[in-house]
Amino acid sequence: MPDRKPALALYQPDIAGNTGTLIRLSACLGTRLHIIDPAGFRHDDKALRRAGMDYAALATLVRHDDFTAFAAMAQAESRRIVLLTTSGETSHADFAFEPDDLLLLGRESSGVPGSVHARADARIVIPMQKEARSINQAVCGAIVLAEALRQLSAFPEFGD
Q1: Residue 31, Cα to own-chain centre: how many angstroms?
Q2: Range of the domain at 65
Q3: Hey, which of 31, 128, 149, 154 has its CA 20 to 30 A from 99?
Q4: CA-to-CA distance for 48 and 119, rounded, in angstroms?
Q5: E-assigned strands of the chain?
Q6: Is residue 57 assigned to a domain?
Q7: CATH number at residue 83
């Protein structure tokens, strides 16, 4: 069963450095990181190691062969898939997070296909200037995971 904290999930990530950054974030905040394959880089990629530094050993990574396997896990564990998307219906700050939410970030180059968008239980957006196209994937993950943990009072204890 899940660890009762929201978790990040990356849909077929393209950029090893972003994935490494989110490995480090997840390790530091004590949350899981789900990676939905295929990724656009090798798992031993130099940029992934550099961005993740030595945090991979502290991180709890869960790999899924594809979105079908990820969605089956979510359903079996009664977890919501919350998609972060520029076409979201609700601001992340107004969304009521639940402890078992899976915060899904799309592929850096193309987001998620329509079938994944339709499967999401909720679609949220980080409000930004209308002239802007998007925020970096790792930054989005940090913003939304921090808001979810704040709402749920689920940050690690200070000094842990």
Answers
A1: 10
A2: 7-151
A3: 128
A4: 29
A5: 7-11, 32-36, 60-64, 81-84, 90-91, 102-105, 122-125
A6: yes
A7: 3.40.1280.10
Determine, yes or no, domain membership for 27: yes
Burial class (CB in 10 A: 0-12, 13-18, 19+), 54: exposed
CA distance 129 to 136: 14
Please give the backbone phi and psi of residue 84, each rounded to the nearest 5 degrees, phi first.
Answer: -90, 120
Q: Is residue 2 included in any domain, yes or no?
A: no
- Segment 87-145, tens digit of pLDDT: 998 999 999 999 999 999 999 888 999 999 999 999 999 999 989 988 999 999 999 99
Starting from the edge strand earliest in sequence, which strands make up the sheet with 90-91, in order? 60-64, 32-36, 7-11, 102-105, 81-84, 122-125, 90-91
Residue 19 lies in a domain: yes
Residue among 116, 106, 156 at smallest CA distance from 136: 106
What tens digit of pLDDT does each residue of 58-98 get? 888 899 999 999 999 999 999 999 999 999 989 999 999 99
How many domains are there within the chain? 1
Alpha carbon distances (Å) from 61 to 85, 91, 92, 129, 158: 23, 27, 24, 33, 23
